[in-house]
Structures are given as structure tokens and as C-alpha cells.
Amino acid sequence: MSLRPFAPAVVAAFLAVALPACTWVHMAPGASAVRVISAGPAPAGCQKLGEISVSVKHSVAFYERNELRVREELETLARNEGPDLGADTIQPLGEPVDGGQRFAGYRCGNR
């Protein structure tokens, strides 16, 4: 009996399980200097520079990705955008929804 007819299904099943575990988002140069503060009121003494919207794949086919990994990737993407905005601090404006999240960017002088 040949297993050849089952090979595409096995490969597809493997990819559906293995790929979502990979981290696709890497920290850009300069992004490590951008600090993340918790959601809440705007930080005192900081200048709001704008908002950052980021998104990642939160599911692959029928597989939902790990919620913590999605949050980490969204935060990394937002930190990557911070220097382009001139921000040294970012703050989430809400919870992630369907793989997307908004952040406020501030210049606080990295206190």
C-alpha cells in the first residue's frame, strides 16, 4: 500500500500546526528604546504624537494562534513604528481584536 496519496494531507496538517508557533515579527533597530506602558490614562508630562495601528494573523485556517504570542507580536510591531513617529513610549488603547490593536505614541523623554 502506497502512502503517496496521503502525503499532501500530512504536509498540510504539519504546516497548519507548525507555522503558527513561529514568531514572524522581529524587533527593528531603535525599537528596543521604545518603552511600553500599561493601558490607562495618558502619561503625565508626555506629548502625544499620534496613534499606531498594527495587525498580525490571529488564525491560520481553522487554527487559532496562541493569544499571548499574538499580543507580543502586536506590541513588537507597535514598538517598531514608534521611532518613525518620534515616540519613545507607546500605550495600548484597547485590547487586541481579530489580530489588530491600536496604540498611542508619546514623547516622554524616556523618564
Specify the helix fraction band: 25-40%
CATH class: Alpha Beta
Tell me the CATH architecture.
2-Layer Sandwich
Could you give a short account of the major beta sheet? 4 strands, mixed
Total number of domains: 1
Distance between the termini: 68 Å
Order of helices and strands: HEEEEHEE
Number of strands: 6
Note the beta-strand portion. 15-25%
Q: And the CATH topology?
A: Translation Initiation Factor IF3
Label the structural class.
Answer: alpha+beta
Strand arrangement, largest sheet? Answer: 1-5-6-2
Radius of gyration: 18 Å
Mean pLDDT: 85
Assembly state of the chains shown: single chain
Q: What overall form do the CA principal axes indicate?
A: elongated
Number of helices: 2
**Unreliable spans:** none
Q: Can you walk me through this structure?
A:
- The chain is an alpha+beta fold and 111 residues long.
- The chain has a single domain (4-107), classed as Translation Initiation Factor IF3.
- 28% of the residues lie in helices and 24% in strands.
- The protein is built from two helices and six strands, in the order αββββαββ.
- The chain has helices at residues 7-18, 67-85; strands at 35-36, 47-55, 59-60, 63-64, 89-92, 100-107.
- The strands form two sheets. The protein has a four-stranded mixed β-sheet, with helices on one face. A two-stranded antiparallel sheet has the order 3-4.
- A hairpin with a 7-residue loop joins strand 5 and strand 6.
- It starts with 6 loop residues before the first helix and ends with a strand.
- The model has no long low-confidence stretch (mean pLDDT 85).
